[in-house]
Structure formats: C-alpha cells, structure tokens
Amino acid sequence: MEKTIGITQSDSKFHLYAPWIKGEDENIEIITLSYDTQNLEDLKSCDAIVLTGGIDTHPKFYKNERLQYPGGPNEFNVPRDEFELKVFNYAKEHDVPVLAICRGMQLVNCALGGDLIQDLEEKGKADHKKQGEFDDGVHEVVLNKNTLFFKISGRDKGKVNSAHHQGLGRIADELMISAVSEDDVAEAVEYSDKTNKPFLLCVQWHPERLKIAESLVSFSKNIRESFLSAINK
Predict the structure, then answer these.
(1) Which domains, ranges and CATH numbers included, belong to the chain?
(2) Is 110 an annotated catalytic residue?
(3) Could you tell me which residues come within 8 angstroms of residue 192 by beta carbon, excluding any fewer than 6 positions away?
(4) Which residue is catalytic, options 58, 128, 139, 206?
(5) Is position 208 annotated as part of the catalytic site?
(6) What's the pLDDT band for 138 if we cut at 50, 70, 90?
C-alpha cells in the first residue's frame, strides 16, 4: 500500500527523518512540509505527519511572556511555530496520524492548551541536554501500563537518547503521560481519550537517530511500525 508521509522542516539534523521513516519501503513517499514555502496545500496528500525537533517554541504560544531564560535561543522561529500549529490542527481535524518528536511533542502540548518548563535544570530537574557536540544523553524512562505506548513497546521501562533542555509543564487536558524520566519529566504523551481520535504518539527523545546502542534501538523500534500501521486503519 502506497503511503505519503509529511515531515515538517527542521534546521537541525533534518536529513535523518526521511530515511528512518522510509526505511526499505519503496511504497513510502516523503513530502517536506516547509514553513519557508508554506505548502499547507500538500497536507491533502499526506496519509500521516511527523512533527520534528528543533528550536524552542516561542513562549507566546503557551501564554508565557518570559523570552529570555537559560538555554533559550537568541532568536525564535515564529513562522515555523505558526506553520506547524496549522499542520497539527489540520491533522487533528482530518483524522491524520501524527508522530511528534522532541520539539514536536512540546508543540502538540502547546497546541492543545498545555505549557512548557522553559529550562529543566532551572526547575531542579536533571540535565537532559546533549552530552557534547555530537552525543545525545542517555537515560531511562518508565511507562504507564495503561497506554498506547506501553502496547507499542511491550515493556515497562527502557533507555532513550536525550537532547532537550525544555519539557512539558502543565499537560493539556486532552493528553495523558505515557512515559516519564527518572526525575519525573514527561517523556511521552498521547490522547487520554482515544475514541474517534487519530493515532497520536509524542516522544521527547529522537528515535530517528538511534543507531549506536542496541538497547536504545530495541526499545524504540516499534514506534515507526506502529505509526505506519495506523495509516492502514
């Protein structure tokens, strides 16, 4: 079955997403959904959407007036925020499956009325950032057993990579936490009531760039397959 997957443009390691989603499947076509070209009309061709990682979402989208905080960018990318909010809202209204990664997870929480912790360490949490120029951090997550993600992973805990300094604060009413880190930071969320809702899985780590530790790969390997399977449903 042919599938068309829309992947939102990111300025950070964007080249890794399409090969991971496509894999060896010649029936998957990738469309870049770009805030530069504003190609929202291409959403009509998308069977599913990936919201990618990258720069912090502008605080105004979670009703916070504080623009300068530890780890924050010198300049936000408001056009990207606005574009991707439209992408997610389209997906929600048209029952399009969504996989949201890192920034994507945070954007979904904002879109649904939640907010963000602007810097985890400032709030007394552990360091979840990259551990050097090229290496992601690694930590364990514990899963809520009454969740879609538990069914996907088949485990109650596992290790993930980590490269973020922000996290979810107040969880949007429509969402539930499906995995947390050891310091109680939300690491995965999904719809709490899935009745008549499209597939939605949001993860704070980067499954598209897991290629070193087998334990990390095996824990996240079913994410892609479950996402693609949701298209057929």
Answers:
(1) 3-232 (3.40.50.880)
(2) no
(3) 174, 175, 176
(4) 206
(5) yes
(6) confident
